[in-house]
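Re-run with default settings, no changes from the original entry. Doing this only to confirm the output is reproducible before filing.
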Amino acid sequence: MHLEMKLSLSLVTFNSGPLIEDLFTSLLDTGTYQLISEIVLVDNASTDSTCDVAGNFTSRLPNMRIIQNRENIGFGAAHNQAISQVKSHCHVICNPDIKFKNANLKSLMNYLVSHSQIGLAAPKVVFPNGNLQHLNRRYPTIVDLGVQRLGKFLPKSVLESRTNKYLMKDCDYDRELDVSCLSGCFLVGKTELLKRLGGFDSSYFLYFEDFDLCQRVQREGFRTIYYPGFEVEHRWARNSHKNWIHTWYFVTSAIKFFNRWGWKVF
């Protein structure tokens, strides 16, 4: 990595106190914080200990600043607040439930910088127990989304067939892959491109803003890539399956995505 290359990171929180304590501790323990010139935490009006926890780390993470919103403006809009401010060559979009496992983040930045045709990249993501999370997605269809949400009511053969294809389980997750829809839990993009695109489309409050960003990056002529040379841990919670408000966000965002990029049934 060239010495003048700068890497920034944004983090959006909403009642994420215990999660960000683990995240920041991993940044410090692995030395990853030394690779990042700017950390911007945008809090969407948390009512728990999130801002206090973050404040406790500012002395050890002097490159971090905190933006406190008075209301929850959504995932994408909050990240955009950070993206519009940072001055870097590459920018990390990071979930609060991520933990760094090593200080190899520069390998992902090097990969992105050395490939002019790549605009956005995602790393290998594992569960806390080390098992792989299959987060890469082919372009979604109505059937795929239905299977993901109603799978327990379907024959096992149907569930596995559709799921394996949609989650790209037929591909080698130990190799670099072109991916139509990358997961927004951890992305690294070229900052100039992200700024030019205006970051995420803030009309998505939650869900599908990452898929939409991938489509817009591809429309600009860039590739969206899965890069297994860097690995993070993700404490994944499928909130969209747990309560009606998240289901509402999921459905309305899916409709918005399909209206913009095209409906596919099968």
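The mean pLDDT is 94. The domain at 7-137+171-238 is CATH 3.90.550.10 (Spore Coat Polysaccharide Biosynthesis Protein SpsA; Chain A).
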